[in-house]
Amino acid sequence: MNAESVWFDIKLVLFAVFLFTACSPKLEIRDDLPDSAFECMQYYTPGGDPLIRTTGEPLPPSSFLTINDSKSALEWRLALIDSARRSLVIQSLIWRTDETGTLLIRRVLQAANRGVEVRMLIDDFDSPNWNRQAAVLTLHPNIEIRVFNPFKKLRGGWAQRGFELVTNLERLNHRMHNKLMLADNRAAIVGGRNIGNEYFGAGKTLDYRDYDVITIGPVIEELSDSFTVFWDSVWSYRISDLPKGEADAEKIDSLKAELDRTVLDSEWLNQEFDVEPGDWADRIAAAKAQMTTAPARAVFDCPPPEEDQFPVQTVVTLNKVVEQVRDEILMISPYVIPLEGFHAAIKEVADRGVTLRLLTNSLAAADHTIAFSGYKKNRVELLESGVTIFELRPDGDMWQQHRLPTSKAKHFSLHAKIYIFDRRWVYVGSLNLDPRAVHWNTEMGLLIDSRDLASLIYRDFIVDLSPENSWRVELRTPDSDRTGGRTRPEMVWISGSEETTREPSRGIIQKINLWFFSLLPIEEQL
Questions:
Q1: In the prediction, which pLDDT does 403 show?
Q2: pLDDT of residue 404
């Protein structure tokens, strides 16, 4: 089952729950929190410049290197794992058990075997197969794995999980969308990617266009703190404390053999990557010479203390940057479902003379048709508010940069979350422009103050906006309506000299799904 069909079923369940479920059980608060649990809100500064400390001092500079292609994204993750000598911290929404996910977890196990202390925090929503492996991995003395906001009763496949979701939606609707890999508290990768073939150019259904940065320097301390916040929170559970979370000691050898078979028997994985740990010293030294130095901060949501509260810190911080913008904003988000008040806020920014451009998925490129339905309802108003919209093509020329030769994917889809303000400030992280990102998910990223880096990332994405890779969407008044009577603007998709008034899609089934989802009042859950 592909990702879209899984989410089709999940979202229908969510909708049914909202219609037929009046209440849900409260979160069972853990009572084993350490006394030193990090005070998350110390990073939350409602007033002032988001890149100035609460003491009034500017943030010290850190160094950054961008990762703009899928193969490099996997290679740099392997490099951080292989180079770790003391500790390895990993945080992710999704960890697939496919070839790339298995390659990475095998390298994590090899790092633990040489004495590296590993802590992994994975959201529990979309990783039922991962949990079986995780239960065995935690038998290793150097590996501890926790899951965020777990399913507690029925920890099998989606048939069982769906039942618990229906009966416990208010709690299970909160998800951890953060993505972080941190080695030895010295180097980190932050961005939009989960772990799985489609995120590294080797998808079976689609390949994602995503983006990461590698960073070293003082901001590492903040990234480490952000992980501690979640690791110690009441929402995170040791997998061994959950049903089916215990494993027999002898299973670690059979798991190692299983990981070896998957990796060593994969012809394409061996063609594209070094499947055994290597020496990355030369590549790391070359990367350091190319890094951009600039002040930055880790921006992350505090996990909500109660299940009926929302995490808001990331959005509030970015809003402070928007208030300072004078010239332009480039917004890159695969999902765009405006919250109440968003259109008015966008219009106010546009009325200040700020150029607003948005890159998102076309219907033809969308991975989740249901999410696109929320965007479609708001698209006209976005255009009328002053936003120039570009929608990614599913077959653009740029796809070749983001897929491996052995990819079996049928189309290309945007997954990066990037916001560039006046080509000075840039946010790289996990935040989408949708209600789920604000109300239900926790998010994280890096906010960097650098004209050089912002311009570099801007150049990386200006290619995406070209006619070879995206449609520009416009509202036009048909000639027949210009002579009088009621004016009814029509939507036009433009790519070079080509124009169409028909929504680009992957076929009639996708359009039927879009029509059906558009009937449902579920934007707040998307």
A1: 94
A2: 95
Q: What are the residue boundaries of the structural domains of the chain, listed by start?
A: 64-287, 299-525
Beta carbons within 8 Å of 358's beta carbon, 6+ residues apart: 330, 331, 332, 333, 336, 382, 387, 388, 389, 390
Q: How many angstroms separate the CA atoms of 265 and 242, rounded?
A: 33
Q: Mapped to the 3 state alphabet, what secondary structure does 27-77 carry?
A: CCCCCCCCCCCCCHHHHCCCCCCCCECCCCCECCEEEEEEECCHHHHHHHH
Tokens of 24: 């849900």
Rounded Cα gap, residues 174 and 170, in angstroms: 8
Q: Which residues contact 28 (CB under 8 A, 6 or more apart)?
A: 152
β-partners of residue 358 are: 331, 389
Question: Would you call 431 helix, strand, or coil by DSSP?
Answer: coil
Fold for the domain defined by 64-287: Endonuclease; Chain A (3.30.870)
* 338-377 per-position pLDDT tens digit: 888 888 899 999 999 999 999 999 999 999 999 999 999 9
Asked if 199 and 95 touch (Cβ cutoff 8 Å), the reply is no
Could you give phi then psi for residue 62, rounded to 5 degrees?
A: -120, 175
Question: Does the pLDDT at position 281 exceed 60?
Answer: yes
> In whole angstroms, how far apart are CA 486 and each of 44, 90, 301, 383, 490?
50, 57, 47, 19, 13
Measured distance CA(103)–CA(275) in Å, rounded: 7
Percent of the chain topping pLDDT 90: 62
How far apart CA 350 and CA 311 sit, in angstroms, is: 27
The whole-number average pLDDT for the span 471-484 is: 76
Cα distance between residue 269 and residue 263, in whole Å: 7
CATH code of the region 299-525: 3.30.870.10
Q: Which two tokens stand for residue 392?
A: 């990614």
pLDDT at 22 > cutoff 90: no
